[in-house]
Design goal:
mainly alpha
Length: 327
């Protein structure tokens, strides 16, 4: 196994695959944890509290470990990234899971690499021909959107039952777009050298923005601490400690010691894990429509990720896969 960063210490195959397995399962299961978390806690408040707690723990740990105090410019960059990824991306997911099952939410969020390649191509139309998307990449983008259309189209058009709620699907589509936009911005943003410190700052800023959005949306009137269920508390605790701390720590370590092409495979695996866990544990319907859409969307993501040339800090699809997991 080759090492992604030659200055990083070598890691054994066993430790790399143990970390990959953690990322595959932990991040794939966070969508189901969100479903339980929002059963008795308003969605934006739940997400905001989750990220503030996880971000506070992570920030304190990194500062005590010797990471330098961030600059004002780095805080501003972290706030922008947190706005796009956590308020826009994750906030849309937790809200939409009131109307859409967790497996479908994971599948639609998994389309973020499609958006990222499309946005990158539109913003850089004047670049040299060799850096433009190939016809295979364009075909992959079109195929991915066909898969999304298959999920949300009326049953009388496709002959498939189990149409996804249109409003929930629309919010998830916007969330994937915002996640891709934030990922593109983060490629050139002034962020701390320590990935974990930068992540903590993004969580703190994004968590604060989510709390503000929940407050403006009147969610405090729906928040009744005495009525919070054990399932919701367990879901939030899982999201804080496993989704945000364990999963993301394993992921950032992998980025330093493993090939990016290997690490980015979680973007294909997470929706599959989410779909089957939702069906197995929560009884979410596993319809032919969902299975066909999963095959089309994940196939399209694989095509554009594997065919994108690596240039700059990250190839667009690669960078989207590197940030499209649930923090």
């Amino acid at each position: 196994m080759t090492v992604k960063n030659p200055t990083s210490p070598a890691a054994s195959k066993l430790s790399i695959w143990a970390a990959m397995l953690a990322v595959y399962i932990v991040w794939g299961s966070t969508y189901l944890a969100i479903r339980y978390g929002i059963q008795t806690i308003p969605p934006l408040l739940m997400a905001g509290l989750r990220f503030l707690i996880a971000g506070g723990i992570l920030f304190a740990w990194r500062r005590l470990s010797g990471d330098p105090l961030p600059t004002r410019r780095q805080w501003r960059s972290s706030a922008i990234v947190g706005f796009f990824l956590l308020l826009g991306g994750n906030g849309g997911v937790v809200w939409a899971e009131q109307r859409v099952v967790s497996g479908v939410a994971a599948l639609m969020v998994g389309s973020a690499p499609l958006w990222m390649v499309l946005i990158d191509a539109l913003l850089n139309r004047g670049r040299p021909r060799q850096h433009r998307p190939s016809w295979i990449t364009v075909l992959g983008i079109l195929l991915g959107f066909v898969g999304i259309a298959l999920l949300v189209s009326p049953g009388d058009l496709t002959g498939l039952h189990g149409q996804v709620d249109p409003l929930g699907a629309g919010v998830l589509t916007i969330s994937a777009f915002l996640w891709a936009s934030g990922s593109l911005y983060s490629r050139s943003a002034d962020l701390p050298d320590s990935p974990l410190l930068g992540t903590a700052m993004e969580m703190l800023c994004g968590g604060a923005a989510l709390l503000l959005a929940g407050t403006l949306g009147g969610e405090w009137a729906q928040f009744h601490p005495a009525q919070i269920s054990a399932a919701s508390l367990t879901g939030v605790a899982y999201l804080v400690f496993f989704g945000s701390l364990v999963g993301y720590s394993a992921y950032t370590w992998l980025l330093r010691v493993a090939p990016t092409t290997l690490v980015s495979t979680y973007a294909y695996v997470n929706p599959i894990v989410a779909i089957f866990l939702g069906n197995l544990i929560a009884g979410e319907p596993l319809t032919l429509r969902v299975l066909l859409a999963a095959l089309v969307i994940l196939g399209a993501v694989a095509v554009i990720t594997l065919t994108q040339p690596a240039h700059g800090k990250h190839a667009p699809a690669e960078a989207a896969a590197a940030t499209s997991g649930d923090d």
